[in-house]
Write a structure and sequence with these properties.
The chain has 469 residues and is mainly alpha-helical. Helices cover 36% and strands 8% of the residues. The strands form five sheets. Strands 9-10-11 form a three-stranded antiparallel beta sheet. The chain starts with 8 loop residues before the first strand and ends in a 15-residue tail after the last helix.
Length: 469
C-alpha cells in the first residue's frame, strides 16, 4: 500500500535536462557527487528527483486519512508534471487545494501516481484500501505493524529487541516457544541420547542433518539456524538440498519420544537432538578423544509459527559444504561457497576446515576420500598430490589423472573441491591442514567451526559467535 503518500510530495519541478550525470558518470572534479541540478537554486521549489511533481493530500504535513479521501473522492485524468512525467490529477476538483511547500500563498491540485490508482482499481487491493478508508483505526494499526516489520525485520528473533515497548513475537520473526521444562544439560542425558543415535545412524547422516538445520542462518538479518527445528516442517523439510534427510528425522523423533517418556520431567527438543546428533557423529568419526561443544536449550517451533512464503526465501540454491548445486544455476559454485561462508560468519580458515572435514565424513559425497567416514585430513592430502593433473569431464566435474601412467585416479571432483588447490589463500590453508602433523589442529579447528555454526542463532548464550562479530 502507498500509505507513505499521506506525507510529503514528489519532486519534478522542471525538465530533466537540468539534472546532470550520476556520481560515477560525473567528471573527476565532482569528487563523487552527481545529479547536479541547474534549475534555479537546484533545491527547494526547484528540486528535480523523480520527475513527478505534487502532493497526494490536501494536508501533506499531517498524518490522517486524507490520502484515501482524495483517492476515492474523485475520478482522475492523465496529465504531465513540469518535468514531463506521467501522473494523474482529479476531475471536477472541489477541495481547498494543496498549499505549496515553499509559498503558502499558492495552492495546487492534488496528484496521484499510476501506482496509487492501481490500489484503487486492482480487484485484490481495492477492497483493502476501501476497508482502510472506512475504518481509520484499522488503517493505523495495520500501518504500525507494517512499519514495525519494515524497520525491525533484520534484527532476527524478538529476543534481540530491547526496551519496554517490544510487541509480542510476530510471525515474520520466526518465533520459537520459550523453554518451560528441564532439558538435557546433564552429561548422562546427553550420553544416553548419543548412544541411541549412533546405534541407528551413521556419523555422516547425523552431521548432514545437523548442518542442514543450522546452516540456514544468515548473519545479514539473523534469520534461520537450528533453533526451532524447522527442518522438520514445511517448507524446509521439502527443499531439494534436504532430499534424503527425512529417514534420519524419523529416527530422531522416535528417540526423542523414548527419552521424553523415560526421563520425565526432563525433555529433549528435536532442535537440541539434531545438533547433539551432529556432535555425536563427529566424536564417533574422530580417531582422537574429542568433545564437540554443545549447549542445550533450543525449543521446537510449530507449523503455525512458520510463515511458509517468508521462510521459503531461505532455501539455498547452493551449499558447497555439502557439494550441492541446484539445477539451472549458472553462477560458479565456488563463488556461491564463499557467499554461504560469509552468510554464516565463517573465516576462510573455518570454511576450509569444514569442507575438508565434511568430505572425509562423506557429507556431500566422499570426494577425494578413500577412508570414508573418518574425520581426518585426507581430502587435503589427496587434493594437493603433485602427481595428478586435472581435466574437466563432460558433466562439469573433474577427474584426476596420474601424470606418468595416464591412469584415472579420481572422478567426480567438483570445482568447489579444486578451488582449495587453485586459490592462493585457500591453497595455503589446505597445505597447512595437509601436513602429516596437523591431525590435532585439524580436528580441533573443525570441531570449533562446526560448533560455531550450530550456535549462530543462540542469542541467549553470552559467548554466542555473532555477539563477537
Amino acid at each position: 500500500m502507498n500509505t507513505g503518500h499521506t506525507f510529503g510530495k514528489c519532486h519534478g519541478a522542471g525538465d530533466p535536462k537540468h539534472v546532470g550525470a550520476e556520481p560515477e558518470g560525473s567528471p573527476i572534479e565532482a569528487q563523487g557527487l552527481g545529479w547536479k541540478n541547474t534549475l534555479g537554486s537546484g533545491k527547494g521549489q526547484d528540486t528535480i528527483t523523480s520527475g513527478l511533481e505534487g502532493a497526494w493530500t490536501e494536508q501533506p504535513t499531517k498524518r490522517d486519512n486524507g490520502y484515501f479521501d482524495v483517492l476515492f473522492g474523485y475520478e482522475w485524468e492523465l496529465t504531465k508534471s513540469p518535468a514531463g512525467a506521467q501522473q494523474w490529477t482529479p476531475k471536477n476538483y472541489r477541495g481547498p487545494g494543496v498549499v505549496d511547500a515553499h509559498n503558502t500563498k499558492k495552492r495546487h491540485l492534488p496528484i496521484m501516481l499510476t501506482s496509487d490508482l492501481a490500489i484503487r482499481m486492482d480487484p485484490k487491493y481495492s477492497p483493502i484500501a476501501k476497508h482502510f478508508h472506512s475504518n481509520p483505526p484499522a488503517f493505523q494499526e495495520a500501518f504500525a505493524k507494517a512499519w514495525y516489520k519494515l524497520t525491525h525485520r533484520d534484527m532476527g528473533p524478538v529476543s534481540r529487541c530491547l526496551g519496554p515497548k517490544v510487541p509480542p513475537p510476530q510471525l515474520w520473526q520466526d518465533p520459537v516457544p520459550p523453554l518451560t521444562y528441564p532439558t538435557i544439560h546433564a552429561p548422562h542425558h546427553q550420553a544416553w541420547l548419543k548412544r541411541a543415535m549412533l546405534d541407528q545412524l551413521t556419523p555422516a547422516q547425523l552431521v548432514s542433518l545437523a548442518w542442514a538445520s543450522a546452516s540456514t542462518f544468515r548473519q545479514t538479518d539473523k534469520r534461520g539456524g537450528a533453533n526451532g527445528a524447522r527442518i522438520c516442517l514445511v517448507p524446509q523439510k521439502d527443499w531439494t538440498c534436504n532430499a534424503g534427510l527425512q529417514p534420519s528425522i524419523a529416527v530422531l523423533k522416535r528417540i526423542q519420544e523414548q527419552f521424553n517418556a523415560n526421563f520425565s520431567p526432563v525433555r529433549v527438543s528435536m532442535a537440541d537432538l539434531i545438533v547433539l546428533g551432529g556432535c555425536a557423529g563427529i566424536e564417533a568419526a574422530s580417531s582422537s578423544n574429542v568433545d564437540v561443544p554443545f549447549a542445550a536449550g533450543r525449543t521446537d517451533a510449530s507449523q503455525a509459527m512458520t510463515d511458509i512464503p517468508s521462510f521459503a526465501v531461505l532455501e539455498p540454491i547452493a551449499d558447497g559444504f555439502r557439494n550441492f548445486l541446484a539445477d539451472g544455476i549458472a553462477e560458479r559454485p565456488e563463488i556461491l561457497l564463499v557467499e554461504t561462508a560469509d552468510r554464516l560468519a565463517l573465516t576462510a580458515k573455518e570454511m576450509t576446515v569444514l569442507v575438508g572435514g565434511f568430505r572425509s565424513l562423506g557429507v556431500g559425497g566422499p570426494s577425494l576420500i578413500r577412508r570414508f567416514g573418518q574425520l581426518n585430513n585426507e581430502f587435503f592430502v589427496n587434493l594437493l598430490d603433485d602427481s595428478l593433473e586435472w581435466k574437466e569431464m563432460h558433466n562439469g566435474r573433474y577427474q584426476g589423472i596420474d601424470r606418468k601412467t595416464g591412469r584415472t585416479v579420481w572422478t567426480g571432483v567438483s570445482r568447489i573441491d579444486l578451488i582449495f588447490g587453485s586459490n592462493s589463500v585457500l591453497r595455503g590453508l589446505a597445505e597447512l591442514y595437509a601436513c602429516s602433523d596437523s591431525d590435532e589442529m585439524f580436528t580441533r579447528d573443525f570441531c570449533n567451526a562446526f560448533a560455531k555454526v550450530m550456535n549462530l542463532d543462540r542469542f541467549d548464550l553470552a559467548d554466542n559467535a555473532i555477539s563477537r562479530l
